Structures are given as structure tokens and as C-alpha cells.
Amino acid sequence: MRQTKIQLTEEDRTTLKSLCSKGRCMAREFNRAHILLALDQNVPENQIMSVLGIGRTAIWRTRAAYLEKGLNYALHDVERPGQPILYRMFTPVKIHKYRMHGMLVLFYR
Predict the structure, then answer these.
(1) What DSSP string describes 81-93?
(2) Would you call 12 helix, strand, or coil by DSSP?
(3) Could you say which DSSP state residue 77 is in?
(4) For the chain, where are the E strands, in sequence order?
(5) How far apart are CA 36 and CA 75, in angstroms?
(6) For the chain, percent helix, then strand, then coil, each to nearest 5?
(7) Minimal CA–CA distance to 36: which of 57, 62, 15, 56?
(8) pLDDT tens string for the chain (109 positions)?
(9) CA distance 32 to 20
């Protein structure tokens, strides 16, 4: 299987090496940094998969992200919006009242 070549810039290479040597990042970023460094050194994909314990799609996506938008896009996850916030402004509210120790108490349900 033909492997797409990646040529890292010197600045990217030093950034990745310092990221790997410090070890103060998330595991995904750590793996992606190792993937990019290995691909720069023309290490076969099968060897990267066996050493890092990752799948082929992780290698493909990391390579494609680097070629598409650069190092930061390849290393870090993109923020996802998540579930939208539900505002319940117009729901009907029942006001219940009862007496407790001679005081009138109101509560909403």
C-alpha cells in the first residue's frame, strides 16, 4: 500500500519533539505528535499502528488534518457544540399554596 509523504517544517518538527519530551498533554495529542514524527521519518503505517496501539484511520485522519490546515489543526480536537441549551420560558407554572405554622407558603411546580 502506498503511503503519502509528509514533509514537516523545521519549526513543526521542533514543536512536536518538545511536546513529546515534556509529556504534559492529552493522550490523543501525544499520539498525534508521534504519528506525525513517524510519518516524517517514513516509518511504515503498520509499524506505527503496532507501536502506538492505534488504528489506521487515526493515522489517515492525522495526516489529512496536517496536510489540510497545519499542525495545530492536526494536534488539537475541534470544539464541538454539544447539545443545545433548552430554555423553558413559556411553560405553564402552577403556584401551590399551603399554610405551615400560621404562615402562607408559596412554591412553584
Answers:
(1) --SPPP---S---
(2) helix
(3) P
(4) 95-100, 103-108
(5) 9
(6) 50, 10, 40
(7) 62
(8) 577 788 999 999 999 999 888 878 889 999 999 999 999 999 999 999 999 999 999 999 999 999 999 999 999 988 888 877 776 665 555 556 666 666 666 655 5
(9) 10
Q: Which residue has the cell 403556584?
A: 95
Q: What is the pLDDT of residue 61?
A: 94
- Distance, CA of 109 to CA of 98 (rounded, Å): 14
Identity of the amino acid at 86: L
All three cell numbers of 1: 500500500
Give CA separation, 100 vs 26, 90, 104, 106, 108, in Å. Answer: 55, 30, 7, 10, 16
Q: What are phi and psi of 46, to 5 degrees?
A: -60, -40
pTM of the model: 0.72
3-state secondary structure (DSSP) of residue 100: strand
